[in-house]
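so my prof wants the structure for this chain in the C-alpha cells format not the other one, which i didnt know existed until like an hour ago. anyway here's the sequence
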Amino acid sequence: MTTSTPATEPETVRSQRRRAVVASTVGTAIEWYDFFLYGTAAALVFPQLFFPESSTYVGVLAAFGTQFVGFAARPIGAAIFGHFGDRVGRKSTLVITLMLMGVSTFLIGLLPTYASIGIAAPVLLVLLRIIQGIGVGGEWGGSVLLSMEWGSKKRRGLMASWPQLGVPVGLLASTAMVQLMSSASGDGFESWGWRVPFLASFVLIGIGMYVRLRVLESPAFQEVKEEREVVKMPVLRVLRDQPREVITSAFVRLSEQAPFYLFITFVLTYGTEKVGLSKEELLNDTLIAAAVGLVSVPLWGYLSDIIGRRLTYGIGIACVGAFAFPYFAMLNTGSSGLVMAAIVLSLFFHDIQYGPQAALIAESFGANVRYSGAGLGYQLASVIAGGPAPLIAAAILESTDSSIGISWYMVGCCVLAMAALILMPRGTAEPGTALEEPVKSGAEKAEA
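here's what i got, hopefully its the right format
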C-alpha cells in the first residue's frame, strides 16, 4: 500500500510553495546585494584604493577588469553547481553558494588597500571576486528552479520571476547601503565607509541560511530521483545533446545583461566624470529605478504566462534597442528630471526581458539536466555580455569622447539577441505547448 507523503497534501504544497518563493527570492537578493556592491565600489572607490598609480582612465579599466573576472568565473560556478544540483538536489547546492558569496564579500570588506600591502591588494581583490563569481554562477539556476518547480506549471513565468526579484532587491539594498554610508562617513567614505556594506553581508548570510534550510527539495527533482533518471554527468550530457539551447540561452541575454551593467555601473562613471553629475544624485535615481523593478519584474513574468514568453521578451529587446540613443541624450542634458527618467526607463525596459527570462531559459531543458543547462546558458552570457560591457563602453568613450558608439554597441547586442530568440528551440512549458512532456535529447529521441 502506497502512503502519500506530506508534500502531496494541498495545504502543505501551498506552504512549501510559499517557502520556496521566499527562500529563492531572499537568498538571491542577498547574493545580488554582494555582487552589485562590488560593481558600485568598482565605479566609485576601487580605482583610487587598489590602483592608485594608474591614470584615471586606466584605473577605471582596471577596476572594471577585476569586476569582469567575477563574470568570467560565473560559468565555472554554473558547471560545478549544475552538476551537483542535477545529481544531489537544488536545495543543498543553494546553501553552499550562499556561503561562498557571503564569506567572500565579507572578506573584501576587510581587505587592506594598495597603500598598505601594495600589489597584493588587487591580487587578493581579484581572487575574492572570482569566488564571488563562482558562487553567483551556481546560485541562479538553483534558486529559479526551486521556485519554478514548486509552482504551478501554468504559472511558471510568474514563479520563476520571483527569484529574479533578487536583482532589483539586491541593487536597491546595495545602492542604499552605499548611499547611507557615503552620507554618514562623509570624507571618510574612501578610508572606511565603503567597508561597512561589505561587512554587513555577514549578517545577511544568517538570514538567507535560515529561510533556505526550511524549504523542501523541489517536486521535479524528487520525481527524477524516484524514476531513477538522475544523469551521471549532466553538464556533459546537456552540452552534447542540447548545444543549441545552451548557446541561444546565452546570446538571448545580450540585449538584457550588457545594457543592464551600463545602466547600473558604467552610468556612475559616465555621469560623474563626463556629465558632471553628483554620485548622490545618480545613486538616488538608481534606487528609484530598482524600486520600480519590484513591481515590473513579476508583472512581466506574469504577463508572459498569458501572452507568451517569446512575445514578451521580444518586446523587451525592441524597447532597449530603441532606447539606446535617447538614453544617453537624456543623460547628457544634465537635467535632474531627464537623468532620473533615463535611469528609471532603462531598468523598466530591461525588466520586460528579465521577468520572463528565467522561465524562457529553464523550460528549454528537462528536469534531469535543467540546473546544468539553464545555469550554463544563463551564465555564459556573463562572458560575452555583462562582464565586458563596462570595459567596452569605457574604451569607446575614451577613444571617441562620445556616447554614440556606446549606443550603437547596445543596438548591436539587441540585434544579436533577437536572432538568438528566433533560433531558440521552444520549451515544453511555454503557453500554448504541452506542459507535461519532458524535453528529450537528440540521443533519447533516436532511442525512442
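also thought this was worth mentioning. Confidence is low (pLDDT under 50) at residues 1-8, 428-448.
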